[in-house]
Specification:
The protein is α+β, with helices and mostly antiparallel strands. The protein is built from 3 helices and 4 strands, in the order βααβββα. It is globular. The protein starts with a strand and ends in a 10-residue tail after the last helix. InterPro entries: Thioredoxin-like_sf.
């Protein structure tokens, strides 16, 4: 997983990263999912943003609810969340 570290997203990075880390720990995925930082993903107006690999699934406008869904639905069951994706 890559979290955008561009100018816009970077201002919210600490909160988003912390929420992902807590959700991953709660789902017992903290040892299998690596959270890395990326350069700007070019979706500044829809930030904060993340990319889930493999498959290059992009999620934008991340908030606590979206992060919990990404962890529990996408990462646990390998089912991307269509309504949260950004093509």
């Amino acid at each position: 997983m890559y979290l955008c570290h561009g100018l816009h997203c970077g201002s919210q990075l600490a909160e988003v990263q912390q929420h992902f880390l807590h959700a991953l720990a709660a789902a017992d995925l903290h040892a299998t999912v690596e959270v890395r930082l990326s350069n700007c993903l070019g979706r500044c107006e829809r930030g904060p943003n993340a990319i889930i690999q493999p498959g290059r699934v992009v999620y934008c406008q991340l908030n606590g609810t979206a992060i919990n869904r990404i962890v529990h639905e996408h990462l646990l069951t390998n089912t991307p969340i269509v309504e949260l994706r950004d093509e």
